[in-house]
């Protein structure tokens, strides 16, 4: 049993090593695999770490992500980034046109890659929906509502995915608490003046919101399909 446990830990370590690859696709897929194995086998990062003297916050980093949405499209990219951070063991800081994913490297890379992938899909869907829309709403209002509706459903789907994984792991709560403490320590040291802020959610669009919610059900929220040609260590 001990040998099996050590082999699993070794696979996770290899995935974490691959998550630092110069290839963004390989790194993101390996990071996602490491996270999946942590849940599946009820392990925490503390058990994976080889240096027991390392402070919790020493393994926390920040990954910067520029926001590309047009000003009149609303704050949907911030809402999306917030959902990704929440359900991938990270925290989020933002200002102006930039967000920071705060967490362990493998988790922030998953957030960033998913952000790219989801943004591409939503932009394509919104463009098509606006082009085909013949209702009474002004198109900028419709587009803004579409993005918000889609992100609402994506957030709900991420939560369902998170709950499924959490229920499979008796140590998931401890893992969340451990990561949260480390992240808060990192933020206090590196961003001592940061203040919590709420991003207003709301739209005057009805048609756009409903169309976006339907689109949100179709969005692919897995980076594995996008990166299916990348290989990572597998359990035999």
Describe this structure in words.
- The radius of gyration is 19 Å and the shape is globular.
- A hairpin with a 2-residue loop joins strand 2 and strand 3 (98-104).
- The chain has helices spanning 2-18, 24-40, 45-48, 76-86, 105-132, 139-168, 172-190, 207-218, 223-226, and strands at 60-66, 91-95, 98-104.
- The protein starts with a helix and ends in a 10-residue tail after the last helix.
- Strands 1-3-2 form a 3-stranded antiparallel sheet.
- The protein is mainly alpha-helical.
The percentage of residues in β strands lies in 5-15%
Quick one: biggest sheet? 3 strands, antiparallel
Number of domains: 1
List the strand order in the largest sheet.
1-3-2
Distance between the terminal alpha carbons, to the nearest Å?
A: 15 Å
Beta-strand segment tally: 3
Count of helix runs: 9
Note poorly predicted spans: 225-236
User: What oligomeric state do the depicted chains represent?
Assistant: single chain
Shape: globular
The percentage helix is 55-70%
């Amino acid at each position: 049993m001990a040998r099996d446990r050590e082999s699993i830990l070794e696979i996770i370590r290899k995935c974490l090593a691959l998550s630092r690859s110069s290839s963004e696709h390989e790194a993101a897929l390996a990071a996602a695999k490491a996270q999946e194995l942590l849940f599946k086998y009820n392990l925490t990062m503390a058990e994976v770490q080889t240096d027991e003297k390392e402070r919790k916050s020493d393994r926390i980093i920040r990954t910067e992500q520029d926001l590309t949405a047009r000003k009149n499209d609303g704050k949907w990219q911030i809402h999306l980034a917030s959902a990704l951070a929440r359900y991938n063991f990270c925290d989020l800081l933002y200002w102006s046109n930039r967000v920071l994913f705060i967490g362990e490297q493998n988790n922030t890379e998953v957030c960033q890659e998913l952000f790219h992938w989801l943004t591409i899909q939503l932009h394509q869907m919104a463009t098509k929906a606006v082009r085909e829309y013949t209702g009474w709403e002004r198109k900028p209002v419709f587009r803004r509502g579409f993005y918000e509706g889609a992100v609402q459903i994506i957030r709900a789907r991420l939560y369902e995915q998170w709950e499924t994984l959490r229920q499979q792991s008796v140590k998931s709560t401890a893992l969340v608490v451990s990561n949260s403490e480390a992240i808060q320590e990192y933020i206090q040291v590196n961003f001592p003046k940061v203040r919590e802020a709420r991003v207003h959610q709301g739209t005057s669009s009805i048609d756009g919101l409903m169309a976006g919610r339907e689109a949100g059900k179709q969005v692919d929220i897995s980076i594995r399909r996008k990166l299916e040609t990348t290989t990572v260590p597998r359990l035999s």
